[in-house]
């Protein structure tokens, strides 16, 4: 069986470094999955400070929840570093760090949970309720880290939001960018405030808009608003990449999801 971890001792900080790579799963199928059982057995051997490097497309939300809880419950300091990708369930694990950092080229992605369900109308309605509860549990992890409103986080998940390093820092999903000389401010106004600000700006400066319309060169150079705010939801442009991500994930039957959710209540 291929190991998904590599343990190293950082001579400068004295912390043990764990390289967490691959899909997150409740069970192992191809030999490179990150499972809670394997993770726990390794984590128990390193009780001190720990640095977790993450490069994962995500996977099983319950398995990610177990790993997240293990790291939050760890006695030593947990420092999470996203070197390339923390998507889907892996972004939940990234929230477990006492400090979370991301590479300048790293990406973080949040989206709504999904499952495979079959049966009659009642079964489908039950699946929807379970997915709603699972989404709320995921929001709990994001909310504790970034302190955004639950409604804004929920909207970001529904839109499948991709964040580059600077945007992730501005929204508070990470505490810093690796190799950066200075930390960027994390504070960002709520969406409602942003909309009102845009309206006020448009009312105060009508002349500038007219000038841009008269000058075709300025009009062409002006970037679209979506590009300025940069909340990337690449439904089309990243279709090939999402196929690779989804290919590594395994579905969980609705009956099994229901049983596991019941266990979490007690």
Helix content: 40-55%
Order of helices and strands: EEHEHEHEEHHEHEHHHHHH
Number of strands: 8
Terminal CA distance: 34 Å
- Structure annotation, total helices: 12
Radius of gyration: 21 Å
Helix/strand/pairing class, anyone?
A: alpha/beta
Percent range for β-strand residues: 15-25%
Return residue spans where pLDDT drops below 50 for at least 5 consecutive residues.
Answer: 1-6, 192-213, 216-241, 244-249
- Principal-axis shape equals globular
Average pLDDT for all residues: 77
* Major β-sheet profile: 8 strands, mixed
Notable characteristics:
266 residues, alpha/beta, 8-stranded mixed sheet, 12 helices, globular
What does this structure look like?
The protein has 266 residues and is an alpha/beta fold. Mean pLDDT is 77; it is low at 1-6, 192-213, 216-241 and 244-249. Helix 2 (61-72) links the parallel strand 3 and strand 4 (78-87). Helix content is 45%, strand content 15%. Strands 1, 2, 3, 4, 5, 6, 7 and 8 form an 8-stranded mixed beta sheet that branches. The two termini are 34 Å apart.
